[in-house]
Amino acid sequence: MADDALPPSWQAPPFAWDAALAAAAQAGDQRPTWAYTWPAGQRLASVLPSLVTLTGRRVVDLGCGKGLLGLWALEHGATVLFADASPHPLAWIEALLAANPQHAPRARTAIHRWGAVLPGGPWELILGGDILYRPECHAALMTTIAISLHPHGQALLADPRSGLEEDLPHLAAAAGLTMHSQRHAAGFTLLRLEREEMAGADGAAPAF
Questions:
Q1: Contact assessment for residue 150 and residue 186, using Cβ atoms and an 8 Å cutoff
Q2: Of 59, 67, 115, which Cα lies nearest the Cα of 91?
Q3: Rounded-to-integer distance, Cα 153 and Cα 164, Å
């Protein structure tokens, strides 16, 4: 059961998590990466309201897996798109939304692969937890963020490592993004990405 990914007020639908895992196994995915509660995403979720305004925002949980970031954004009043390449975690999230109908009108799911535009955009806030572990996918990730982000929006990506790949700023710049990296006291590295044309003259990332 994925209760560890839920805000306290949410109810987990019976058997939905087991059904998602069983469907993945039947499809040949015995150890799906989306089944884990990844550490940086969990830490980002715990401090998210202190980093950015969520109420009324249009938010994407990119590479959502269990949907932890998106669930907490919903809890704080955002409208959320849960996007993942696999249909199995999305089935879990859809069952979860059905069991918590007070949140369902502000949420939708979509199968999405990096490199393509996110549906329903442009999006004001794109969130990603622990999605930087495959360097060969970084260019496609930056492309998706660049073509899906609102001109005044930003992306927040959390990674547990203190040192990230050196080419990330160059890949961001090639996609038309500026990138700011800092180590957060909660124990993760936070990347803030914004559209290059909206960066301040001093290069500072604007706060929402």
A1: no
A2: 67
A3: 23
| Cα–Cα distance measured from residue 206 to residue 204, given in angstroms and rounded to the nearest whole number | 6
Quote the CA–CA distance of 195 and 146 in Å, as a whole number: 7
Helix (H, G, I), strand (E, B) or coil at 42: helix
Cα(55)–Cα(185) distance, integer angstroms: 24
**Four-point Cα dihedral 23, 24, 30, 32, nearest 10:** -140
DSSP 72-117: HHHHTT-EEEEEES-HHHHHHHHHHHHHSTTTGGGEEEEE--TTSP
CB 49 within 8 A of CB 76: yes
Cα separation, 54 vs 83, whole angstroms: 18
Contact 7, 39 (CB under 8 A): no
Domains by residue range for the chain, with CATH: 38-198 (3.40.50.150)
Task: Please list, in sequence order, all residues whose beta carbon lies within 8 angstroms of the beta carbon of residue 15, skipping any fewer than 6 positions away.
Answer: none
What is the pLDDT averaged over residues 30-37? 82
Q: What is the value of pTM for the model shown? A: 0.91
Q: Please state, in angstroms and rounded to a whole number, the distance separating the CA atoms of residues 185 and 59.
A: 24
State the pLDDT at residue 4: 61
Q: Could you report the per-residue pLDDT of 119-135, keeping only the tens digit for each?
A: 999 999 999 999 999 99
Q: Compute the distance between CA of residue 56 and CA of residue 104 in angstroms, rounded to an integer.
A: 15
Residue 173: C-alpha distances to residues 82, 99, 143, 208 (Å): 26, 42, 10, 22
